[in-house]
């Protein structure tokens, strides 16, 4: 019988998600060989001993009998109303439960909101570095990702004037990730107001990814973007996975505010797409009201003496002690985006280093260029491990960087045998 390779969809051309790519596959192979791999490539709290608040688990259990049927395509009303109440408590009054959609994580909603918006060739302004799902979903839905720079010399904060130069007649939306993944930057009200002014001037949809909204350090303050938007449509994304340490529950939401009256057709299209997948996971939706209305335990973790605060401090200290590394200290989220001094290591390549670190030191990181930036001297790691584990990780990182520094300038990108 003749066999023929099955061709893949051309829509996948240019789609990348290297956080779970070749490096992660190689890590699995090493684990099968008996090696213990320290996995810092993904922000997955449950893998590091964090627990979902017990009240959320109980809310799911107590409502299991109400979870056996499909629910409304937008989600159960108590969950959507809880999102509205949280938004209203933050000063966002022009929204209601009809403008809230619950999804199987924010990831599904990013795809659906872009699919309902984009025509082939439409452009979406996305920050660089970005969370690569935004780029992938834009491409998969026929759009073109246009990157506005968030420069390291500016603390990874965007400049609205640079962003303005990228707007064309094909631009449909601006994506903002705040607090930012992968850099941990938290944007000021002035910066956000400048971006909002551009969106309102050009009639662009604002898509604000705020999944880390309460994961803040020191004196950082998160400004909900929807509080600044009046003259265009604002979509605010959040969910249970990070702040509430419930990644596996797969519950996210998008709340629409601002000029919703002019977005009737768009919201109907989004509801159609939500209907085609019937509904999102019902049992986990019962945890939303308890999560948003209950005690916000994340503050214990991010305040001084808390586990996340201590782990962040360990990263900052380890980078300061390293002769090879530099860091813009993260003000939010659960990541650090760490730079490598190219004067000390002029031939450094982030993918080559990440593979070598995995092979030799059994530490899995995400190369910085995975986040759609042109430079190759950064890597991202999560700050979820305990401080002692982080100190051990940086001993291994510096050992490998010292090995590179002692060699010829070329850094091989091939895995060690």
Q: Can you summarize this structure?
A:
This protein has 13 helices and 13 strands. With 417 residues, the protein is α/β, with parallel strands linked by helices.
Would you write up a description of this structure?
This protein has 417 residues and is of the alpha/beta class. It has 2 domains: 13-42 and 304-405, Aspartate Aminotransferase, domain 1 (Alpha-Beta Complex); 54-293, Type I PLP-dependent aspartate aminotransferase-like (Major domain) (Aspartate Aminotransferase, domain 2), CATH 3.40.640.10. The protein is built from 13 helices and 13 strands. It has helices spanning 22-32, 54-62, 77-89, 105-117, 132-140, 160-164, 189-202, 264-276, 282-293, 298-302, 307-321, 350-361, 387-405; strands at 38-39, 100-103, 123-128, 144-149, 171-177, 205-209, 233-239, 252-258, 325-327, 335-340, 363-364, 366-367, 378-382. The radius of gyration is 22 Å and the shape is globular. Mean pLDDT is 94; it is low at 410-417.
């Amino acid at each position: 019988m003749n066999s023929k390779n099955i061709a893949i969809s051309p829509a996948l051309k240019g789609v990348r998600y290297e956080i779970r790519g070749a490096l992660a596959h190689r890590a699995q192979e090493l684990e099968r060989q008996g090696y213990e791999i320290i996995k810092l490539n993904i922000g997955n709290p449950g893998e590091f001993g964090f627990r979902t608040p017990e009240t959320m688990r109980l809310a799911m259990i107590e409502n299991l009998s109400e979870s056996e049927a499909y629910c409304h395509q937008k989600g159960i009303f108590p969950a959507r109303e809880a999102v509205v109440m949280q938004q209203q408590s933050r000063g966002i009054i022009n929204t209601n439960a009809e403008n809230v959609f619950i999804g199987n994580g924010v990831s599904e909603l990013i795809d659906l909101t872009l699919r309902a918006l984009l025509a082939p060739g439409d452009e979406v302004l996305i920050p660089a570095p970005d969370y690569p799902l935004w780029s992938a979903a834009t491409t998969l839905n026929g759009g073109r990702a246009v990157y506005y720079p968030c420069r390291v010399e500016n603390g990874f904060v965007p400049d609205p004037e640079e962003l303005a130069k990228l707007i064309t007649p094909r631009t449909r939306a601006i994506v903002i990730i705040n607090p930012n993944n992968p850099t941990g930057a938290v944007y000021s009200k002035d910066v956000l107001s400048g971006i909002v002014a551009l969106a309102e001037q050009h009639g662009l949809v604002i898509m604000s990814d705020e999944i880390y909204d309460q994961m803040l350090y020191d004196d950082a303050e998160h400004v909900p973007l929807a509080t600044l938007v009046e003259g265009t449509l604002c979509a605010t994304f959040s969910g249970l996975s990070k702040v509430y340490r419930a990644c596996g529950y797969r519950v996210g939401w998008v709340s629409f505010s601002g000029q919703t009256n002019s977005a009737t057709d768009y919201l109907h299209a989004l509801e159609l797409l939500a209907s085609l997948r019937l509904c999102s996971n019902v049992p986990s939706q019962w945890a939303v009201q308890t999560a948003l209305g209950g005690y916000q335990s994340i503050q214990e973790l991010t305040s001084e003496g808390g586990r996340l605060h201590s782990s962040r401090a360990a990263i900052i200290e380890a980078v300061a002690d390293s002769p090879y590394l530099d860091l813009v200290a993260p003000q939010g989220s659960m990541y650090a985006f760490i730079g490598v001094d190219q004067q000390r290591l002029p031939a450094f390549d982030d993918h080559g280093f990440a593979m070598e670190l995995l092979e030799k030191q059994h530490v899995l990181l995400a190369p910085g260029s995975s986040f759609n930036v042109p430079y190759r001297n950064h890597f991202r790691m999560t700050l979820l491990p305990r401080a002692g584990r982080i100190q051990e990780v940086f001993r291994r990182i510096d050992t490998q960087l010292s090995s590179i520094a002692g060699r010829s300038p070329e850094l091989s990108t091939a895995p060690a045998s």
